Amino acid sequence: MIPETLKKSIVEGRTFIITTHVNPDADGVGSCVAMSRLLQRMGKSFYIVNHAHLPPSFSFLENLAEIYTELPAGSEKADTWLVLDTSRPDRTGRIKASEGRKTVVIDHHADNPRYGDVCWVDGKASATVEMIFELYQAFDMVPDIEAATALYAGMLIDTGGFRFSNTSSKTLNTAAELLKCGVLPHELFRQVFLDKRAQRVKLEGLMYNSLEMHRDGRVCVMSITQDMLKIAGANESDLEGLSNNTLTIKDVQVGILFIENPNNVKVCFRSDGKPNVSEMAAIFDGGGHAAASGCTINEPLPMARKKIFDSIISGI
Ligand SMILES: [Mn+2]
Predict the structure, then answer these.
(1) Ligand 1 center to residue 244 CA distance, Å?
(2) Cα distance from N-terminal residue to C-terminal residue, the chain
(3) 95: which strand partners?
(4) How far is the centre of ligand 1, averaged over its atoms, from the C-alpha of 241 (Å)?
(5) CA of 231 to the centre of ligand 1 (A)
(6) pLDDT digit string (tens) for 38-54?
(7) Is the pTM of this model over 0.70?
(8) Which pLDDT score, from 0 to 100, does residue 51 have?
(9) Confidence label for 195 from pLDDT (cuts 50, 70 and 90)
(10) Could you tell me the domains of the chain?
């Protein structure tokens, strides 16, 4: 249910700053784009301002709206911050809500502590874009093709192409409604999941080569090291979504991908829905969903591995 206070905040606001989390993804940016189209039709002013842009492979999404990475001139008159797909207030990076403005939060992370002046969290929604579509319906609006594209791309990413356990009948009904708005599913699937760089595919090969099985085949572990990135000629933008590949083996319940950064190790957890991996990530101050989560460990790779093995893998 959409809180009445949320609808009221949108009706009453005049100028909005719309933002999402650091390392933006297609759900976060898709939410910003679709929300901006809704506000535009209501005659509101808005600025989409994010900590960073999406990787170049998602330019089709970024090109649907003007997206800033610094607060632009004029934005100081904004009366409302709209924070989308962001589970904690400190996750907006450099783009910080300033005092004296109303903060409105729309998010689907169940562990969201309910921050802001008005907060709508639906932990059952597959993606924040699914909630934004609900908002369109509440305001009796049908998304235009740009908004529909942004909404569909967000759902594709957060459900892994309607494969993950967060895919509900509501998700698929929303998808069906978006097709009526003109979304071409094969084209968007190709843009979101295929159309890869050769360097990315080479990196995938090296990642698969690192495969380890643990706990009688219930846990699949893969790694990406700085060396692998060099050998493949790949960069950070080639990492998007790779962790989903840890769940492709029969009987695996938990997939873990270690990504070695220059100063820390990012650990991505994926589950078939049963073991709650957001609880696992939370042990190391991370967060996410029951089926997909992550944390960062400020240690070299061998130490980070040992920590994850000792405190998580040994208990699965
Ligand atoms: Mn999301």
Answers:
(1) 15
(2) 36
(3) none
(4) 13
(5) 32
(6) 999 999 999 999 999 99
(7) yes
(8) 94
(9) confident
(10) 4-193 (3.90.1640.10), 198-315 (3.10.310.30)
Contacts by 242-246, CB closer than 8 A, 24 or more apart: 242/203, 242/204, 242/207, 243/268, 243/269, 243/270, 243/292, 243/294, 244/160, 244/270, 245/204, 245/207, 245/208, 246/220, 246/221, 246/222, 246/270
Q: Which residues contact 270 (CB under 8 A, 6 or more apart)?
A: 243, 244, 246, 247, 254, 255, 256, 257, 277, 291, 292
What's the CA-to-centroid distance between 29 and ligand 1, angstroms? 10
pLDDT confidence tier of residue 240, bands split at 50, 70 and 90? confident
Distance CA 97, CA 94 (A): 10
Tell how far the Cα of 130 is from the centroid of ligand 1, in angstroms. 9
Q: How high is the pLDDT of residue 275?
A: 92
Query: How many A from CA of 38 to the centre of ligand 1?
Result: 19
CA of 225 to the centre of ligand 1 (A): 26
Q: List pLDDT tens digits, range 151-162.
A: 999 999 999 899
| Cα 53 to ligand 1 centroid, rounded to whole Å | 16
Task: State in Å: Cα 158 to ligand 1 middle.
Answer: 6
Distance from residue 108's CA to the centre of ligand 1 (Å): 6
Distance of CA 87 from the midpoint of ligand 1 (Å): 9
Count other Cβ atoms within 10 Å, centred on residue 25: 22
Joined together, the tokens standing for residue 14 give 């005049």
Q: How many angstroms separate the CA atoms of 243 and 258, rounded?
A: 9
d(CA 51, CA 22): 6
From the CA of 27, how far away is ligand 1's center (Å)?
Answer: 5
